[in-house]
Amino acid sequence: MKAVVFEKFGEVPTIQTVADPEPAVGGVVIKVEATGLCRSDWHGWMGHDDGIRLPHVPGHELAGVVVAAGSQVTRWKAGERVTVPFAVGCGRCFECSSGNHQVCEHQSQPGFTGWGSFAEYVAIDHADTNLVRLPDEMEFATAASLGCRFVTSFRAIVDQGRVTPGEWVAVHGCGGVGLSAIMIASAMGANVIAIDLTDEKLDFASKIGAVATINAARTPNVVKAVKQITNGGAHMSMDALGHPTTSFNSIANLRRRGRHVQVGLMLGDHARPQIPMDKVIAFELEILGSHGMQAYRYQAMMEMIRTGKLKPELLVGKKISLEEAPAALMAMGGFEGIGIGVVTKF
Ligand SMILES: [Zn+2]
Ligand SMILES: [Zn+2]
Q1: What is the DSSP string of 79-147?
Q2: CDD domains in the record, alphabetically (predicted)?
Q3: What is the CATH number for 112?
Q4: Which one in 9, 213, 220, 297 has a CA-CA gap of 20 to 30 Å to 88?
Q5: What is the pLDDT of residues 5-25, one digit of tens each?
Q6: pTM (predicted TM-score)
Q7: For residue 91, how far is its CA from the centre of ligand 1 (angstroms)?
Q8: Total structural domains in the chain?
Q9: Does the bond joining 326 to the residue before it have cis omega, within 30 degrees of 0?
Q10: Rounded to the nearest whole angstrom, what is the distance from the C-alpha of residue 284 to the centroid of ligand 2?
Q11: CA–CA dist 97, 296 (Å, integer)
């Protein structure tokens, strides 16, 4: 099969012909029909992820068709249209048996712990626990865009952030995660403030549900601005970018008993940011992480998509070919444009 391969961290990936994958006894092989480009792929390529063994094929936001299933797979067969969360749970550990596959102790992640979906085929283990059937009407490009950012935002807003109608939600950073979170929080009935450095993204955020925007490049004190708009602070706030400044602001702009959810990755020099711990105590703030979403939780999200309350297709950006993927991957270190780039030609 054709695949995007890198032999060394930070060196230009190339298109190579490599062996087709075989399914594990409990796994499947999926013919990839769409795979999204994500900043975490860029982090992986740069060598920020300890789990990656070289040479490596990136890619973790995928959708496609099952072409082969292992002998122990009972729920899936060739021909079924599927997607999969990026954190693939083993289905057997304590976390998985308590319903928390997203933090499985033995999780695999396509494109990180093993070869990913920037290829014609990808192998996914523990298929019965992790595969999600796609509605007939959903395009592969839309389905691929769910796998990482959209489901992570859904869990961050709904399950971790516990957003309820009428609450104020601040979203720091309007890339793929941030825009997804704005759409989801608005659909949940919250009043959402979008915060970013560019007017283009803020205008788009308003179109998909934000009731207020703050351009951080022109606002000397973002925390003060959020507190003014919300009359005291956000009930829930998310750092969707992953930067010490946005992380700090997202915690500092909360009202008493507010919830901060960290979704933007904090790696390398950013792994240990400053936290206003005085406020965490005095205001009884909650600081939560959010890491993907369990396959079984897709159902609620899929119903909101089916009924038109969520429109992830609006967040799909440029469609490109596998040949264009290496350049697009290397460019992910800069700030993303609007919409998630998706490889749809292999
Ligand atoms: Zn597990
Ligand atoms: Zn991702």
Answers
A1: T-EEE--SSB--SSSHHHHTT-GGG-TT-B-BTTTB--SSBSEEEESSHHHH-EEPPTTS-HHHHHHII
A2: Zn_ADH6
A3: 3.90.180.10
A4: 9
A5: 999 999 999 999 999 999 999
A6: 0.94
A7: 5
A8: 2
A9: no
A10: 31
A11: 12
